[in-house]
Design brief:
mainly alpha, two-stranded antiparallel sheet
Protein backbone atom coordinates (compact mmCIF):
# COMPACT_ATOMS: atom_id res chain seq x y z
CA UNK A 1 0.00 0.00 0.00
CA UNK A 2 1.45 3.36 -1.04
CA UNK A 3 2.11 5.94 1.64
CA UNK A 4 -0.43 8.32 0.12
CA UNK A 5 -3.08 5.62 0.36
CA UNK A 6 -2.21 4.95 4.00
CA UNK A 7 -2.59 8.66 4.73
CA UNK A 8 -6.04 8.76 3.13
CA UNK A 9 -7.03 5.67 5.12
CA UNK A 10 -6.18 7.49 8.37
CA UNK A 11 -8.05 10.62 7.30
CA UNK A 12 -11.08 8.52 6.33
CA UNK A 13 -10.91 6.68 9.66
CA UNK A 14 -10.89 10.00 11.53
CA UNK A 15 -13.85 11.45 9.59
CA UNK A 16 -15.88 8.23 9.75
CA UNK A 17 -15.26 7.83 13.49
CA UNK A 18 -16.44 11.37 14.25
CA UNK A 19 -19.62 10.93 12.20
CA UNK A 20 -20.33 7.46 13.58
CA UNK A 21 -19.87 8.62 17.17
CA UNK A 22 -22.42 11.38 16.64
CA UNK A 23 -24.98 9.14 14.93
CA UNK A 24 -24.56 6.37 17.50
CA UNK A 25 -24.68 8.66 20.51
CA UNK A 26 -28.34 8.01 21.37
CA UNK A 27 -27.71 4.36 22.22
CA UNK A 28 -26.71 3.64 25.83
CA UNK A 29 -25.20 0.19 26.21
CA UNK A 30 -23.78 -1.91 29.03
CA UNK A 31 -20.01 -2.32 28.84
CA UNK A 32 -19.35 -4.89 31.54
CA UNK A 33 -19.49 -2.92 34.79
CA UNK A 34 -20.54 0.48 33.41
CA UNK A 35 -23.06 2.05 31.03
CA UNK A 36 -22.06 4.44 28.27
CA UNK A 37 -23.11 5.72 24.86
CA UNK A 38 -21.97 3.33 22.14
CA UNK A 39 -20.17 6.22 20.48
CA UNK A 40 -17.43 5.61 23.03
CA UNK A 41 -16.39 2.62 20.88
CA UNK A 42 -15.34 4.77 17.93
CA UNK A 43 -14.24 8.01 19.58
CA UNK A 44 -10.81 6.54 20.48
CA UNK A 45 -10.17 5.80 16.81
CA UNK A 46 -10.69 9.44 15.93
CA UNK A 47 -8.13 10.90 18.32
CA UNK A 48 -5.64 8.07 17.73
CA UNK A 49 -5.82 8.69 13.98
CA UNK A 50 -5.44 12.44 14.47
CA UNK A 51 -2.41 11.98 16.75
CA UNK A 52 -0.70 9.90 14.07
CA UNK A 53 -1.56 12.41 11.35
CA UNK A 54 -0.33 15.38 13.34
CA UNK A 55 2.87 13.65 14.44
CA UNK A 56 3.82 12.77 10.87
CA UNK A 57 2.17 15.46 8.73
CA UNK A 58 2.24 18.43 11.09
CA UNK A 59 -0.10 20.95 12.64
CA UNK A 60 -1.37 22.67 9.51
CA UNK A 61 -2.44 19.44 7.84
CA UNK A 62 -4.20 18.33 11.03
CA UNK A 63 -6.03 21.67 11.30
CA UNK A 64 -7.23 21.51 7.69
CA UNK A 65 -8.54 17.99 8.24
CA UNK A 66 -10.42 19.08 11.37
CA UNK A 67 -12.03 22.03 9.56
CA UNK A 68 -13.02 19.84 6.62
CA UNK A 69 -14.43 17.24 9.00
CA UNK A 70 -16.49 19.92 10.75
CA UNK A 71 -18.07 20.82 7.40
CA UNK A 72 -18.82 17.15 6.69
CA UNK A 73 -20.25 16.65 10.19
CA UNK A 74 -22.46 19.72 9.86
CA UNK A 75 -23.69 18.45 6.50
CA UNK A 76 -24.51 14.97 7.83
CA UNK A 77 -26.32 16.33 10.88
CA UNK A 78 -28.30 18.82 8.81
CA UNK A 79 -29.35 16.15 6.30
CA UNK A 80 -30.32 13.85 9.16
CA UNK A 81 -32.32 16.62 10.82
CA UNK A 82 -34.24 17.52 7.66
CA UNK A 83 -34.84 13.84 6.87
CA UNK A 84 -36.69 13.43 10.16
CA UNK A 85 -38.77 16.55 9.48
CA UNK A 86 -40.02 15.40 6.09
CA UNK A 87 -43.48 13.78 5.97
CA UNK A 88 -43.40 10.00 5.64
CA UNK A 89 -44.91 8.29 2.62
CA UNK A 90 -47.71 5.79 3.05
CA UNK A 91 -45.37 2.92 2.17
CA UNK A 92 -42.69 4.01 4.64
CA UNK A 93 -41.92 1.00 6.82
CA UNK A 94 -41.04 2.47 10.22
CA UNK A 95 -41.61 6.25 10.16
CA UNK A 96 -42.03 6.73 13.90
CA UNK A 97 -39.09 4.52 14.80
CA UNK A 98 -36.88 6.24 12.22
CA UNK A 99 -37.70 9.70 13.53
CA UNK A 100 -37.26 8.59 17.12
CA UNK A 101 -33.82 7.09 16.47
CA UNK A 102 -32.41 9.71 14.12
CA UNK A 103 -34.25 12.74 15.46
CA UNK A 104 -31.73 15.44 16.33
CA UNK A 105 -32.71 18.70 17.95
CA UNK A 106 -31.10 21.85 16.61
CA UNK A 107 -29.61 22.48 20.04
CA UNK A 108 -27.90 19.07 20.21
CA UNK A 109 -26.71 19.45 16.64
CA UNK A 110 -25.11 22.83 17.31
CA UNK A 111 -23.62 21.57 20.58
CA UNK A 112 -22.02 18.63 18.82
CA UNK A 113 -20.44 20.75 16.09
CA UNK A 114 -19.19 23.47 18.44
CA UNK A 115 -17.76 20.97 20.94
CA UNK A 116 -16.00 19.06 18.17
CA UNK A 117 -14.41 22.17 16.66
CA UNK A 118 -13.20 23.64 19.96
CA UNK A 119 -11.87 20.35 21.30
CA UNK A 120 -10.07 19.27 18.14
CA UNK A 121 -8.36 22.62 17.58
CA UNK A 122 -7.33 22.62 21.23
CA UNK A 123 -6.03 19.06 20.86
CA UNK A 124 -3.84 20.17 17.95
CA UNK A 125 -2.48 23.15 19.90
CA UNK A 126 -1.71 21.11 23.04
CA UNK A 127 -0.07 18.40 20.93
CA UNK A 128 2.12 21.02 19.20
CA UNK A 129 3.07 22.69 22.50
CA UNK A 130 4.06 19.41 24.15
CA UNK A 131 6.02 18.43 21.06
CA UNK A 132 8.06 21.64 21.28
CA UNK A 133 8.58 21.34 25.04
CA UNK A 134 9.88 17.78 24.73
CA UNK A 135 11.93 18.52 21.59
CA UNK A 136 9.98 15.89 19.64
CA UNK A 137 10.64 13.23 22.28
CA UNK A 138 8.05 11.36 24.40
CA UNK A 139 5.32 10.85 21.82
CA UNK A 140 3.29 9.11 24.53
CA UNK A 141 3.12 12.35 26.54
CA UNK A 142 1.73 14.53 23.78
CA UNK A 143 -0.62 11.80 22.54
CA UNK A 144 -2.20 11.22 25.94
CA UNK A 145 -1.81 14.78 27.24
CA UNK A 146 -3.56 16.39 24.29
CA UNK A 147 -6.40 13.87 24.51
CA UNK A 148 -6.86 14.34 28.26
CA UNK A 149 -7.21 18.11 27.86
CA UNK A 150 -9.25 18.19 24.66
CA UNK A 151 -11.69 15.46 25.63
CA UNK A 152 -12.50 17.18 28.91
CA UNK A 153 -13.37 20.31 26.95
CA UNK A 154 -15.27 18.31 24.33
CA UNK A 155 -17.40 16.46 26.87
CA UNK A 156 -18.04 19.53 29.03
CA UNK A 157 -18.94 21.87 26.17
CA UNK A 158 -21.26 19.34 24.57
CA UNK A 159 -23.09 18.45 27.79
CA UNK A 160 -23.68 22.06 28.80
CA UNK A 161 -24.66 23.33 25.37
CA UNK A 162 -26.94 20.38 24.67
CA UNK A 163 -28.59 19.72 28.02
CA UNK A 164 -28.12 22.57 30.50
CA UNK A 165 -31.52 23.72 31.75
CA UNK A 166 -33.63 21.26 29.71
CA UNK A 167 -35.20 20.26 33.03
CA UNK A 168 -34.83 21.49 36.63
CA UNK A 169 -32.40 18.69 37.44
CA UNK A 170 -30.10 19.50 34.52
CA UNK A 171 -28.02 22.02 36.43
CA UNK A 172 -24.24 22.42 36.44
CA UNK A 173 -23.68 19.93 39.25
CA UNK A 174 -25.76 17.24 37.56
CA UNK A 175 -24.03 17.70 34.22
CA UNK A 176 -20.56 17.62 35.75
CA UNK A 177 -21.51 14.34 37.38
CA UNK A 178 -22.05 13.05 33.84
CA UNK A 179 -18.98 14.72 32.37
CA UNK A 180 -16.38 13.32 34.78
CA UNK A 181 -16.96 9.58 34.27
CA UNK A 182 -17.18 9.96 30.48
CA UNK A 183 -13.99 12.00 30.47
CA UNK A 184 -12.15 9.54 32.72
CA UNK A 185 -13.21 6.69 30.47
CA UNK A 186 -11.79 8.51 27.44
CA UNK A 187 -8.56 9.13 29.34
CA UNK A 188 -8.20 5.43 30.15
CA UNK A 189 -8.80 4.54 26.51
CA UNK A 190 -6.20 7.13 25.42
CA UNK A 191 -3.58 5.63 27.75
CA UNK A 192 -4.16 2.08 26.55
CA UNK A 193 -4.27 3.27 22.94
CA UNK A 194 -0.85 4.94 23.08
CA UNK A 195 0.99 1.90 21.63
CA UNK A 196 -1.31 2.14 18.61
CA UNK A 197 -0.10 5.71 18.03
CA UNK A 198 3.49 4.47 17.86
CA UNK A 199 2.44 1.70 15.48
CA UNK A 200 0.44 4.17 13.38
CA UNK A 201 3.36 6.58 13.08
CA UNK A 202 5.62 3.74 11.94
CA UNK A 203 2.93 2.44 9.55
CA UNK A 204 2.32 5.83 7.94
CA UNK A 205 6.02 6.59 7.64
CA UNK A 206 7.81 9.87 7.07
CA UNK A 207 6.49 12.27 4.42
CA UNK A 208 8.59 12.47 1.25
CA UNK A 209 11.23 15.16 1.08
CA UNK A 210 10.22 18.23 -0.96
CA UNK A 211 11.88 18.45 -4.38
Amino acid sequence: MHRETRFYVLVSLFVASVIAANLMGNKIAVFGFFDAAVGIMVFPLSFLAMDVIQEVEGQETARRIVLATMVVLAYVLLVTFFATQMPSAARDFFPQEYNRIFGISVRVMVASIVAFLIAELLDIEVFRTLREWTHRRMLWLRATGSTVVSQFIDTTVFMFLAFYGVSPKHDALYLMALVIPYWLLKCVVAVFGTPLVYLGVRWLGKPPEPP
